[in-house]
Amino acid sequence: MLVSIVIPLLNENESLEELHSSLKQVLIDNNYSYEAIFIDDGSTDSSWSAIKELSRKDNHIKGIRFSKNYGKSQALHAGFNLAKGDVVITMDADLQDDPEEIPEMIEMLLSKNYDLISGWKKKRFDSLFLKNIPSKVFNYVARKTSGIQLNDFNCGLKIYRKDVVKTIDVRGEMHRYIPILAKNEGFSNIGEKIVKHQARKYGKSKFGAARFVNGFLDLVSLWFFTKFGKRPMHFFGALGVLMFIVGFGSAFYIGAAKLYKLYNGLPTILVVNNPYFYIALTSMIIGVQLFLAGFIGELILNNNQHTNRYNISEKI
Fold this sequence. Notes:
The chain has 316 residues and is of the alpha/beta class. The protein has two domains: 2-228, Spore Coat Polysaccharide Biosynthesis Protein SpsA, Chain A, CATH 3.90.550.10; 232-302. It contains ten helices and eight strands. The protein has helices at 13-29, 47-57, 72-82, 102-111, 128-146, 162-165, 178-184, 210-228, 232-263, 275-302; strands at 2-9, 33-40, 61-66, 87-90, 116-120, 158-161, 190-194, 312-315.
């Protein structure tokens, strides 16, 4: 069995040698055939030089270098495409994920036939107010929205069966929601394991408090695309038809009321002087626009062409 370890990184040159040493020791001690794929997401330090040096010393090391910073999701996408292992592991390069967790996670994945297992950093060494509390709120909302009972969606240490990573499409900032993406593709046997969280030894975090705001916005987007991404007409079309019917019904009522009053000699006003006429007209226009939005969405979906999402400048 081949194990692939996918490691996205940005400006982590100080930690790479130590990470490789501990990772290699664990894998060799447990007799795993392995490949470690480092994805340099546009680092401005000497991270790529460090990766090339590791590759020279260890032929199990592979590397991908982006021409600029595209984000963690794109790095994982590139790593998943390159990975050949029967089991694929993701972990961060900042030494906060402990390689010693890997054997137990592999055993758990295979023995219980999970599709993926997500780590849970139950005891954290992060700031209480800047990371811990927002993270708990974020994970609570993600659980309620997705129906997946995980305590730590954003943990970098995860393990997957090969067919999971070859099926899911990690794009945008959706690396936080890989378990949800997997569930949407039919991989619903998702487990969780408590893992150690180690304090950062070098450098500083690349993610600020803004990631939680972005995370919630991404969660809303994912919820929408999960329900309507493959059938936009069902959302925009239905809403458009409803708006048009309401507007048309209101306009018809205004016109009928005008004719009734004229027929019976009752005082009346011009239709164009009735403010409700413009509300009804606006409703019909919005209804048509929403219907067209759903129709255009269907056209885009059916004619979608895959384009380059990142530019790889080097590979080893």
